[in-house]
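Module 6 notes. Inverse folding takes a fixed backbone as the condition and produces residue identities as the prediction. Think of it as a translation problem where the source language is geometry and the target language is the twenty amino acids. Below is one complete input and output pair. Work through it position by position during the lab.
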């Protein structure tokens, strides 16, 4: 494989020295970019974009043509795994993801297969290898998957949910069924992420989008335990380099110490945490990724710079910080403001690495 020209993202995740704080954005390939909207129109719909490796590569690279980002992230969706389990993923305009089949009984769960990454999700593996080839060592490529709890909520609810009523009812009414579902998902996600690593992903992130909806005890038992199981099963070295793992629980600020003990290399923080306080709480155990409120990008460039400065100062000197938003960039953001954000991180962080 081609040598990396810019590896500061991987170095920061492993708490090695860097010249400036690396930066990337969750959902950096997305609807805020006019070139992405053009590619999606050409592909026909979102799933056609995801399932065509050439299109997935095209949109993955689009933000790198605009901005000096320190990482690329595979363009895909967390729900490819339940789709490969036979639930039939589709997207309703303005409604978000939907499944043609839902999981409501123990029998439904027992019937679920564990997808083979090559046979059932080969289009994702092809996208990873295509992107890695086209990057040609420019920056590292991040692979990703949803956490078992997050995937389970979509599978039980049939789509997005505000209150997770059906998922939580199963969790409390029939914990045996929920544990079986989560265990199958943990096996599936482990195989899926390992497939991405073998195809060329140089770091992986687990998105626990809905872990923060759980009580403290339920989070430990039904979300974190299964992410720990995945982390323990991942390939941690490939192509002669360590493959860092990032755990991101949105709304997980109460449980940082527990998440830091799960075996990953880095924790993603949403914007409700103070990153300096998070650093004090987890010590040198893990790197931290985050955590500017994405809506700051609606403000003017001077206000964006000020918020970047505040977060850098809160984290303080030394490595172990990957700058990111506290969640995905939103569709209405002016691309110029995203550029101002990235420029500010690189420019203002150098003094913290001298």
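Target side of the pair, the amino acids:
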């Amino acid at each position: 494989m081609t040598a990396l020209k810019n590896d500061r993202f991987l170095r920061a995740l492993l708490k090695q020295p860097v010249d400036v704080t690396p930066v990337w954005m969750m959902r950096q390939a997305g609807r805020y970019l006019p070139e992405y909207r053009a590619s999606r129109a050409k592909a026909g719909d979102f799933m056609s974009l995801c399932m065509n490796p050439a299109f997935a590569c095209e949109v993955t690279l689009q933000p790198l043509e605009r901005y000096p980002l320190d990482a690329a992230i595979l363009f895909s969706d967390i729900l490819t795994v339940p789709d490969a389990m036979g639930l039939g993923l589709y997207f309703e305009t303005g409604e978000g993801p939907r499944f043609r089949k839902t999981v409501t009984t123990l029998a439904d769960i027992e019937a679920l297969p564990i997808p083979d990454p090559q046979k059932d999700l080969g289009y994702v593996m092809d996208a990873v290898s295509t992107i890695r080839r086209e990057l040609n060592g420019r920056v590292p490529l991040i692979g990703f998957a949803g956490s078992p709890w997050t995937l389970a909520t979509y599978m039980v609810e049939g789509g997005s949910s505000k209150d997770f009523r059906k998922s939580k009812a199963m969790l409390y009414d029939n914990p045996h069924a929920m544990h079986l579902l989560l265990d199958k998902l943990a096996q599936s996600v482990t195989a899926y992420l390992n497939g991405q690593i073998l195809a060329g992903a140089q770091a992986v992130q687990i998105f626990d989008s809905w872990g923060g909806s759980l009580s403290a005890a339920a989070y430990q038992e039904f979300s974190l335990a299964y992410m720990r199981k995945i982390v323990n099963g991942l390939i941690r070295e490939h192509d002669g380099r360590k493959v860092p793992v990032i755990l991101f629980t949105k709304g997980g600020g109460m449980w940082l110490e527990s998440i830091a003990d799960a075996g990953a290399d880095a924790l993603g923080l949403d914007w409700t945490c103070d990153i300096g306080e998070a650093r004090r709480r987890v010590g040198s155990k893990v790197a931290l990724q985050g955590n500017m409120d994405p809506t700051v990008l609606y403000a003017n460039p001077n206000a964006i710079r000020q918020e970047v400065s505040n977060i850098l100062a809160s984290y303080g000197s030394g490595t172990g910080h990957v700058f990111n938003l506290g969640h995905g960039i939103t569709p209405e953001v002016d691309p110029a403001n995203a550029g101002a954000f990235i420029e500010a991180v690189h420019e203002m962080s150098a003094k913290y690495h001298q």
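Reference fact for the lab report: Residues 8-353 form a domain with the TIM Barrel fold (CATH 3.20.20.210).
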